[in-house]
Amino acid sequence: MKGLASLATGLLFGVGLVLSDMINPLRVRAFLDVAGAWDPSLAIVMASALVPSVIAWQIRRRRQRPLLDDRFHVPTSRQLDRSLLAGAAVFGIGWGIVGLCPGPALADLAIQPWPVAGFVLAMIAGMILHRLLHVRRS
């Protein structure tokens, strides 16, 4: 059941990305071009995501545990450390250069696989490298 819920959630997310055209790297880069032909549609998508997020947090506060797991997986750290800031910077720079982040890139694989395949492979390599370095530190 957990796998089915994950699949349904991922499909809903992907459909939302397609309908909002957030899988289009040019739209994302136009949002980041505040000094040029700025496109506010990404801001609208982000703002509209706040509504279900607030509702979900309210539901979470009232429940002891989620429906399909034994506990809520909520980050416990409130610290802005060097690792978090470096990761956010690398993510933002990559997003600005390419116009893709992980969710839209995976959704794009279904629509235009060849233009985004290199990005997805690099993303997977980065995840493997992080895992190897993180395990070595632990």
Structure description:
The chain crosses the membrane at residues 36-57, 84-107, 113-133. Keywords: Membrane, Transmembrane, Transmembrane helix. Pfam families: DUF6691 (PF20398). The protein has 138 residues and is an all-alpha fold. It has one domain. Helix content is 72%, strand content 0%. The chain has helices at 2-19, 25-32, 41-62, 82-98, 102-111, 113-137. Helix 1 (2-19) packs across helix 5 (102-111), helix 2 crosses helix 4 and helix 5 runs antiparallel to helix 6. The longest helix is centred in the C-terminal third of the chain and has 25 residues, at 113-137. It is globular and about 45 Å long.
Describe, in short, the structure shown.
It comes from Luteibacter sahnii. With about 140 residues, the chain is mainly α.
What descriptive keywords fit this protein?
mainly alpha, 72% helix
Number of continuous helical runs: 6
Number of domains: 1
Give the N-terminus to C-terminus distance in angstroms.
Answer: 32 Å
- Rg over CA atoms, rounded to whole Å, is 17 Å
Main sheet attributes: strand count, strand direction, barrel closure? none
